[in-house]
Amino acid sequence: MSAPILLIGAGHIGTALIRGWIKAGLGPITAVEPNPSAQLKRLEGPNLVSDLRRIPRERWRACVVALKPQVMRAEAVHLKSIASSGTLMISIAAGTGVEFMAKQWGRKTRIVRAMPNTPGAVDRGITALYAAPTATARDRTLAKSLLSAIGHTVWLKREALIDAATAVSGSGPAYVFALVEALAAAGVAAGLPRATSAVLARATVAGSGALLDADKRDAGQLARDVATPGGTTEAAFRILLAKDGLEALMTRAVAAAKARAEELTRS
């Protein structure tokens, strides 16, 4: 039997990873989670541990740390013995750089940073990955295998790009959900009943995402397919594509998220 995977933190992303690993036959799995959800408890297979100090002594295949940045900074010290044993450490903590982890765990620690997103809960996520210089080719292969269990992966050549990836794909699902709410509210303002507008907005965004996945042409071309000359979409585009429109708004939003990730890294 393969050495077990150790997961530290089993919230939404952690639970999605466990489900993906079980489905892919990547177990056995030990998960440390002080407040396991009902969803996590229903999963068959993982050994649940309530406290970092109760982690069994094992030879781990990898340790995946899925903690919030603030929790990571407080609890990282308790993982030093695992890291110093030669275990590959895969961190999903946003705004927590390799330098911080190396100080906590040792300069020789093999580290991969990962930034997945919540669509991984339905196997449609994407994860940006960065391998520290200490990580081996084998480590990269293992990290890709573990994160591919919840969707696609992309490798970044520079660690600084993790903050930009966090702002685009890590936080990105929230932007899309906010768009659904805004589109529904606009429908109400245009005269639709609230419930009807909510159904239309949700189905439109979900269906558009499915089309985007199925049709490999770029998003701009798909948009142009809808916007016939002189039509209703073109009228809307005069607002959305204005100099101060959607692109400018999204650029400011992503820049703010990236700046916050960088601030967390420095703190």
By CATH, the superfamily of the largest domain comes out as NAD(P)-binding Rossmann-like Domain
Number of domains: 2
Low-confidence stretches: none
CATH topology of the largest domain: Rossmann fold
CATH class of the largest domain: Alpha Beta
Task: Provide structural commentary.
- The protein contains 12 helices and 8 strands.
- The chain has about 270 residues and is α/β, with parallel strands linked by helices.
Quick tags:
2 domains; eight-stranded mixed beta sheet; Rossmann fold; 8 strands; ProC C-terminal domain-like fold; 267 residues; 12 helices; elongated; alpha/beta
Short description:
51% of the residues lie in helices and 13% in strands. The protein is an alpha/beta fold. The protein has an eight-stranded mixed β-sheet, with helices on both faces.
Please describe the topology of this protein.
Elements: E1 5-8, H1 12-24, E2 29-32, H2 38-42, E3 47-49, E4 62-65, H3 69-75, H4 80-84, E5 88-91, H5 98-105, E6 111-115, E7 125-131, H6 137-147, E8 151-155, H7 161-170, H8 172-189, H9 194-214, H10 219-226, H11 232-240, H12 246-266
Parallel strand pairs: 1-2, 1-4, 2-3, 4-5, 5-6, 7-8
Antiparallel strand pairs: 6-7
Helix pairs in contact: 7-12, 8-9
